[in-house]
Amino acid sequence: MVARLAAPLVATLAVALVPAAASAVDAPAGARLAVCHRAPSIERRVAVVSTWMRGIPGGSHLAVKIDLWERRPGQHWSLRADVPGLGSWVRPSDAGVGSRAGDVFKYRQAVGRLEVPAAYRFHVTFHWLDDDGAVTREASRNTGVCRQPDLRPDLVLRSVTVAPSTSSPGLVRYAVTVGNEGGSTVARATVTATFLSPAGPSPHRRNVRELAPGDTVVITFTGPGCAAGDAPPSFVADPANTIEETDETNNALAAVCPAP
């Protein structure tokens, strides 16, 4: 399990200058969604916008501003104003870019740690300025939508059945049903058992090599029984909180006392 924190989005950016011949588009500026990477882990969810513009008569100084808009299920589009590097005007490092024939100013912005489920799109504003810094022309573009479904797994402890152990007299066999109700496969998950007293010959930890979405597996533990009024044996999936899940509240389950 991994606690769901409101982590800020992280932005990275890069600037490049290329000859105008590299683009066959006649419009003075453009923007597109270059990358929309979906993943179960927030660390790998990334959207990248690619923009370009070139100088025009009376507006040979160039500037671009990129904003990110987000839409949650059942909500309207809203501006994400908390993303470092966005919402500010950026100009070419060479102030002369745009004043020479063949100049094109290209700019890419990457935004990571996208939250789910949500949809994202970039809004790009272009400014052309004269030698006095006055804006002579403005244009804006919206990119395509980067949809980020919730692909995280979801480990669920569904049931615990109890029966006398056939191999260890005086102890009890606990069969724990573990399911994955999320959108991606779980690999190397751990389930632990806690008893009131030493659990006998079997260890208190079991490993699940792989559990695909919709699949279940039964894991068994051998331990002491419990009487009415005792604290029952308890079982936890992913006790070290190493798996980022859709729901972090369904990873624990207790047996019912008395156990045989």
Provide tags for this entry.
Immunoglobulin-like, rod-shaped, 17 strands, 0% helix, 2 domains, mainly beta, 48% strand
The name of the CATH architecture of the largest domain is: Sandwich
Summarize the biggest pleated sheet.
6 strands, antiparallel
Number of helices: 0
What class, by secondary structure content? mainly beta
Q: Tell me, what's the shape?
A: rod-shaped
Indicate the low-confidence ranges by residue numbers: 1-8, 10-26
Radius of gyration, in angstroms, nearest whole number: 28 Å
**Rounded average pLDDT:** 88
What's the CATH topology label of the largest domain?
Immunoglobulin-like
Helix share of residues? under 10%
- Number of self-contained structural domains: 2
Number of E strands = 17
> What top-tier CATH class of the largest domain fits best?
Mainly Beta
Q: Please give the alpha-carbon distance between the first and last residues.
A: 32 Å
- H/E element sequence: EEEEEEEEEEEEEEEEE
Strand-residue proportion: over 45%
Q: In terms of topology, how is this protein built?
A:
Blueprint: E1 10-19, E2 29-37, E3 46-53, E4 61-71, E5 78-80, E6 89-90, E7 103-112, E8 118-129, E9 135-142, E10 146-148, E11 155-164, E12 172-180, E13 186-194, E14 205-211, E15 216-223, E16 234-237, E17 252-254
Antiparallel strand pairs: 1-7, 2-3, 3-7, 4-5, 4-6, 4-8, 8-9, 8-10, 11-12, 12-15, 13-14, 13-16, 16-17
